[in-house]
Amino acid sequence: MNFAGKHKPAAKAAPAEAASDGAAATPKVKRGPYAWFGTLASVILILASLFVLWKLSEEITWAELQKAFTEVTNRQLAEAFGMVAVSYLFLTCYDALALRQLRLKVPYRTTALASFTSYAVSFTLGFPLITAATIRYWIYSKRGLSAAKIAALTVIAGFTFWLGMGVVLGLSLIIEAGQLASLTFQSIGVNTTVRLNQILGFGALGSVLGYIAWVSVKRRYITVRQWQLELPGATVSFSQMLVGIGDVCAAAAVLYVLMPEGMSLGFTTFLAIYVLAAMLGIASNAPGGLGVFEATILIALSYLPRDEVLGSLLLFRICYYLVPFILALLMLGTYEGLSRLRRRRAANDP
After folding, report:
1. Residue 73: its pLDDT value, please?
2. For residues 123 and 325, is the Cβ–Cβ distance under 8 A?
3. Rg (CA), the chain
4. Handedness of CA 275, 41, 49, 117 (dihedral sign)
C-alpha cells in the first residue's frame, strides 16, 4: 500500500480492534514551544487585512455599490458561472489523481460528489482539515475507504493545488515582470525591479520542477506522525501540475470577467495578483481568505474605482463560493436521503 502504518513500537500492545485498520491508536503529540506562532500570525494578518479593507471601503456608499452590481451584464455572469463550472470540474480531478496514486478504484460519480461538496463547503466555512475531511469521510467510507486512506487522499490533493499555484505564479512573474513592477509602484509605492520579479518567478517555477525531478529519481515518502505516505511519481505529479494550473486559471478567470471594463490588465498579469491574494488568504486561515483576499485585490487595483472593484469581488464571492455552497448542501441532503431510502428498502426486502 502507498499509505501504510509504519510506527514506532509501543510499550504496551495495541488492542486488536485498532490493528484491524492497519495501525495502532494515534499517540499524543507534544506541541512545540513555537506552536502558537502560526495561529498568532494568522490572527494578525486577518486583523490587519480587515482594517485595510475597512479603510479602503469606508468612502464607498451603498448607492455606488448597488450601481456596480447593476452594471454587470448577463454575458459577464454567464462567463463567470461557466468558469466556476470549469474550476470545480478540475477540483474533482484532485481526488481522482489521489485515488489513482493510492491504487483505489472509486466510481467517478462518487469522486465528483465527494470532491465538489468537500471543497464547496470548506471554501465557505473554512477549517478544511475538519470540514472537507469530514465530508470526504462521510462519502468515501461508504465505499470501504479507511480513515487513513482518506487522510492520504487529502494530503495528495493538497499537493495538486500547490503545484499548480507555483507554476502559475512563476510564469506570471516571468512573463509580466515589467507590468507587475510598475503596478506595484502605483499601488503601494514600492519599486520592485523587473529582474527581482523574474528571479522570484524562476524561483517559484524552479521549486515545482525541482520537486518533480526529486520524485522522479526514486520513491519518496513523507511521514505524518507514525504514518508514511508515498508521494506521487513523475507521471502523476505532472498530471497534478496540469490539473492545478487549470483550476487556478479558471478560478482567476471568474473574477477577471466580473471586473469593470476600465481594467487594462492582461489576464497573465491579473493571474499573478490573484495568486498572491489567494496565497495570503490561505495563510490567514480565514474562510475563503475573507477580508485578506479582498484587501490585496483592492490595493493591487487601486487605480480603478473602489466601488466597482468591491462590487466585482462581492459578485465573485456569490458566484464562486455561495452558489456552490448552497448546491453542495442540497446534494449532500439528497445523497443522505437516497442512502437512507435504499437502506430502508433493503431492510424491508425478504
Report:
1. 87
2. yes
3. 22
4. positive
pLDDT digits over 214-264, tens only?
Answer: 989 888 888 766 778 888 888 889 999 999 999 999 999 999 999 988 787
Residue 27 DSSP SS3? coil
User: Following CA atoms 94, 333, 124, 257 in sequence, which dihedral angle do they give, to the nearest 10 degrees?
Assistant: 70
Residues 6+ apart with CB under 8 A from 320: 84, 87, 123, 251, 254, 255
Q: What is the pLDDT of residue 41?
A: 57
Strands (E) located in 177-266: 221-224, 227-230
Q: Which residue has the higher pLDDT, 219 or 91?
A: 91
Sheet with 227-230: strands ordered across? 3-5, 227-230, 221-224
Reduce the DSSP state of residue 224 to 3 states and report it. Answer: strand
Per residue in 273-308, is it b (16+ CB within 10 Å) or e — as a string?
bbbbbbbbbbebbbbbbbbbbbbbbbbbbeebebbb
**Does the structure show a pLDDT above 60 at 59?**
no
Instruction: Decide if 271 contacts 167 (C-beta within 8 A).
Output: no
In the Cβ-directed half-sphere of 206, how many Cα atoms lie within 13 Å?
A: 7
- Mean pLDDT is lowest, of 215-224, 293-302, 312-321, for 215-224
